[in-house]
Amino acid sequence: MVAELDEAPASEGVLRRALEQAQRRGAPLRVLVTWQSRFGDVHDGHAVADGNRLAKAQLDRRLAHWRKRNPDLDVQAVAVHGSTLNFLTKNASSIQLLVVGRERAQGIKALAGPPGYAALHNGNCSLLICEPQNVL
What we know:
This protein is of the alpha/beta class. It has a single domain (2-130), classed as Rossmann fold. Helix content is 46%, strand content 20%. The protein has helices at 11-25, 45-69, 84-91, 109-112, 114-123, and strands at residues 2-4, 29-35, 75-81, 97-101, 126-130. Helix 1 links the parallel strand 1 (2-4) and strand 2. Helix 3 (84-91) packs parallel to helix 5 (114-123). The longest helix has 25 residues, at 45-69. It is globular.
């Protein structure tokens, strides 16, 4: 299972839902964060590796609380340069469920439209789109 997180507060709801699904399925959870180069160093392997390391370290800090609350669950941070769709295209065959927020920064159309459908369908991966959590 993979959960896509970003900086939006709604990502906590996505993570909670992904944790629930991983527990129900007895599946490991990979929490994905993507990032884009800002300085044209996309072809610099060291810059991309450093960017991945930094993004993963930030995500690991964010996940520490959830790992303590769910010690029996295999939760790993994954940071990739590029987009979730690129990650999905390369890894869909090993993912049974992708959990994303409805208000994701890149929009839902890329994943629910033809490009995402092709990647999901070819890998037999399902897509769970989470609604934002409203506080009463």
